[in-house]
Amino acid sequence: MTLFTALFPECVAARMSLADKPLALKQIATLAKACPVLAEVSEADILAGLEQRESLGSTGFGNGIAIPHCRLKAASDFVVGLITVPDGLDFEAVDGEKVRLIVFMIGPERDPKKHIQLLSGISNALAVPGATDEIVSAASNEALQEHFLRHVRDELQPVEENGRSLFHVFVQNETLLEDILQVFGGIESSNAVVIGAENIGVYLSKRPLFADMWRDNPSRFCQLVVALVNKLITNETIRRIERITGPLNNRPDIMITVQDVFYCAGAIDQ
User: Fold this and answer.
1) Hey, which bits of 128-222 come out as E strands?
2) Is the pLDDT of residue 209 over 80?
3) What's the maximum distance between 2 C-alpha atoms anywhere in the chain?
4) How far apart are CA 133 and CA 110, in angstroms?
5) Is 147 a catalytic residue?
6) What dotted CATH number matches 164-260?
7) pTM to 2 decimal places
8) Class assignment of domain 3-150?
């Protein structure tokens, strides 16, 4: 399942006028229910799932975008839909701005890893500069679907196994960690973990020999992301990280190493 196969024409609505967030959630439930994949799920259950997720925190993530989503036991597969509201609506977004683009997703409760991958794929697609304005400008449902898919056309879904690359991403910039994790979260073939780390100064400053080398507090934010990625998309993964960080050679707070994996067996639960 990819964003290409999860996006159904029945769930696309361009240039709507919605007064508020509750009305938007009801409209999402109506559109989602029109999809054959959710034939066994009631519209009321879809709405309840969306409302429950919103109670945890608004999915209006800023920049005019909302990505409401929920997981339901009765859902057999993933359904993605699009709504544009050119005039905007109050979705209780984190930045207080009106939402003009809604990308929603309903998925089965049993597959959280795929849910994360699809959400990350949506987020990555909309992070492309100018993507939201282009999508919202669509004048018809067909054009809206086409505009959106244009920005997810490079979704990282390798069609064959060709070995794996082991990524180590050392992150000392807390504001960038979440975006970097979304890169790996959106890759079908990725298995990633985050390991807490500390820079060497934290340890050496405790030794008498080096006590005068770090007069101020040497501790700083540091996390290590370790990920296995299909070798076919190694370069594209690096490119997506640099889209977030800028050229890595200019960063004093991000470092990436990539190695070929000789042997790998087993799996980890995401």
Assistant:
1) 164-171, 191-196
2) no
3) 70
4) 34
5) no
6) 3.30.70.120
7) 0.70
8) alpha beta
